[in-house]
Sequence to fold (344 residues):
Amino acid sequence: MEHGTTLTQFIIEEQRRIPGATGDFTSLLNDILTACKKISCAVNRGGLIGVLGSAETENVQGETQKKLDIISNEVMIDALEWTGHLAGMASEEMEDPLPIPKHYPKGKYLILFDPLDGSSNIDVNLSVGTIFSILRCPDGVEHPAVEDFLQPGSKQVCAGYALYGPSTMLVLTTGHGVNGFTLDRSIGEFILSHPDMKVPAETREFAINMSNQRYWNAPVSRYVEECLKGAEGAREKDFNMRWVASMVAEVHRILTRGGIFMYPGDSRKGAENGKLRLMYEANPMSFIIEQAGGASSTGRQRILDVQPQGLHQRVPVILGSREEVQRVVSYHNDTDGDGSRQVA
Ligand code: AHG
Ligand code: MN
Ligand code: MN
Fold:
């Protein structure tokens, strides 16, 4: 029976095109797939196995952890620490990088991940996901410190996410376009279902948490106001709005039918750089969006060019259809440094 190209076959064939490739990276990806299948299974069974609800603990960002945040983090660690492909791991749920235990061999890659993204959705049975970013460990470093992880997003070797929605999907880039795979539970394999995904350049759909509107800066307010005015306003067309509160789900929608997603910095104390984390949310998603022909910016700088200062730092995110992102960036260029409208 014909089942299509499996993700394993796809990455092995990609690897064959790279002269001198050792298979190390292919093997690492396979181990990530195994972890995502396990998380998918836990998410899917939810209330049946008692994994819903709060763990009554806080992560380094002071956010209350869900039981599934902790379980997903452990699944990722268990699936990856023994493999010999990694020199270190870092996660949203751990303050410091996790060294590879002494009794396991070390490899040449670093991984950063958000084990469960959109976890506020878990108890209401809506889509969540896992996001990961793979970097090369700097040459000669055997025990990577935080600084070794702090590489700009443009240095990523691979980025991907698993989406646990009506179907479980794995979307991946290694810098040669973006491909989407759907988990066929009958054979336990991810099958290529969305080859060469592209973000449409134009859109009539935006995603932003409108409840923060009163805190936005002038460029973001101007863009959204124009969308809301629709056909009667400067844009001369009507816009639709969506907000899932799960970045994986929003990015997947944008990869499928276009759109713009914004989590800007705002005037609340501590929200100057928004909410999303650079190293394991913004960077991997920006790599994927750019590889699919879209754009990703803080409003003032390409996200992939931001020099990281900390493992858990936040960054304003504006990503999606290229022309829309460019428009928001141009509104930032029209304003002065504090975000207020420049007087001509
Ligand atoms: P996480 O569950 O990993 O903490 O991430 C949630 C993030 C992101 O996925 C989503 O876009 C955003 O938080 C939603 O934030 P609001 O609740 O402020 O809308
Ligand atoms: Mn997240
Ligand atoms: Mn998370």
Q: What stands out?
A: The chain has two domains: 7-194, 205-333. The chain has a mean pLDDT of 94. The chain is about 30% helix and 20% strand.
